[in-house]
Design goal:
Length: about 110
């Protein structure tokens, strides 16, 4: 289970598990759309420079292999978006109608 935390970030095992739960609440048909919107959110965030470099490299790795819409790819994107722009991430989920996942994301923001 500790292998789930592959990054030198402040995420705890509980938060990592919560990210997995959030991703599992995203319908497969919306995962590519969510991945695209999360990338835009991360790249356009004024706090993008606060993204840990190892997490940015992991996202780039998945992006180059067209793996961002996978469960692991989305988990890393959510980790990044909640780091640089948690409020915008919550709004994005609301805009996409992913209301089941919002309470879990709100817990991660706290």
């Amino acid at each position: 289970m500790k292998k789930l935390i592959a990054h030198n970030t402040k995420l705890t095992l509980g938060k990592t598990l919560s990210l997995i739960e959030v991703v599992l609440k995203v319908p497969v048909v919306l995962r590519a759309t969510l991945a695209d919107k999360l990338i835009d959110l991360i790249l356009n965030s004024p706090r993008a420079d606060q993204l840990p470099s190892d997490l940015a490299k992991t996202i780039l790795f998945y992006w180059q292999r067209d793996q961002l819409p996978t469960e692991t790819g989305l988990q890393r994107l959510l980790e990044a978006s909640m780091t640089v722009s948690p409020d915008e991430t919550l709004r994005l989920f609301e805009d996409l109608g992913l209301t089941e996942a919002i309470p879990l994301l709100a817990q991660l923001k706290a």
